């Protein structure tokens, strides 16, 4: 089912995967990869035959582009992007960014102790604040929905409001 690709063919495919949004002429590809035009042409013909790239003819020019609609090509592109993200260490950065977001993004927090059944009032017993290391409350976009409702359970000062009646 799967035919093996040689190093040059894989090089062409890899180059097109890196630039999926662009279209290339044969000479652009051969120059960029430092291979002869005939080598690039043979690789492109095989990749077209396999459905990995698209070809468009304009006058006597052949224009090539990665076929991102092909499921195999799409998976290769995703795999390549994940590999790049891991190589660059961005996964660790993303974890830190998420922790910072949780810590510093404003949410609905109690500004004084709230007992079960108390009416929730903005500025009286809750406000939109940064939670820091406390329990994070609902996002600020739920402010109007929360105002005037009853507390479902006791809430300590500084903790977030996550449930209401």
Which percent range describes the beta-strand content?
A: 5-15%
**Annotated CATH architecture of the largest domain:** Orthogonal Bundle
Q: How are strands sequenced across the largest beta sheet?
A: 1-3-2
Order of helices and strands: HEHHEEHHEEH
Annotate the secondary structure layout.
Elements: H1 7-18, E1 24-25, H2 26-33, H3 37-50, E2 53-58, E3 61-66, H4 71-87, H5 90-104, E4 107-110, E5 126-129, H6 143-146
Antiparallel strand pairs: 1-3, 2-3, 4-5
Helix pairs in contact: 1-3, 2-3
Tags for this entry?
single chain, 165 residues, alpha+beta, Arc Repressor Mutant, subunit A, Type Iii Antifreeze Protein Isoform Hplc 12, 2 domains, three-stranded antiparallel sheet, 5 strands
Explain this structure to me?
This protein is an alpha+beta fold. It folds into two domains: 7-79, Arc Repressor Mutant, subunit A, CATH 1.10.10.10; 100-165, Antifreeze-like/N-acetylneuraminic acid synthase C-terminal domain (Type Iii Antifreeze Protein Isoform Hplc 12, Alpha-Beta Complex). The protein contains six helices and five strands, in the order αβααββααββα. The chain has helices spanning 7-18, 26-33, 37-50, 71-87, 90-104, 143-146; strands at 24-25, 53-58, 61-66, 107-110, 126-129. It has a three-stranded antiparallel beta sheet with strand order 1-3-2. Strands 4-5 form a two-stranded antiparallel ribbon.
Give a quick summary of the entry.
The protein has helices spanning 7-18, 26-33, 37-50, 71-87, 90-104, 143-146; strands at residues 24-25, 53-58, 61-66, 107-110, 126-129. It is an alpha+beta fold and 165 residues long.
């Amino acid at each position: 089912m799967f035919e093996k690709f040689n190093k040059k063919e894989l090089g062409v495919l890899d180059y097109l995967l890196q630039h999926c949004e662009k279209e290339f002429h044969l000479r652009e590809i051969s120059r960029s990869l430092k291979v002869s035009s005939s080598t690039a042409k043979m690789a492109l013909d095989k990749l077209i035959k396999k459905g990995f790239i698209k070809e468009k003819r304009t006058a006597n020019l052949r224009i090539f582009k990665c076929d991102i609609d092909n499921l195999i090509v799409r998976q290769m592109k995703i795999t390549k992007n994940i590999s790049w993200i891991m190589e660059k260490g961005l996964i660790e950065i993303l974890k830190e960014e998420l922790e910072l977001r949780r810590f510093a993004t404003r949410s609905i927090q109690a500004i004084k102790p709230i007992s079960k059944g108390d009416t929730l009032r903005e500025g009286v017993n809750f406000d939109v604040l940064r939670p820091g290391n406390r329990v994070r409350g609902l996002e600020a976009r739920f402010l109007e929905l929360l105002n005037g409702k009853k507390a479902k359970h006791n809430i300590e000062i500084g903790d977030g409001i996550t449930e209401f009646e």
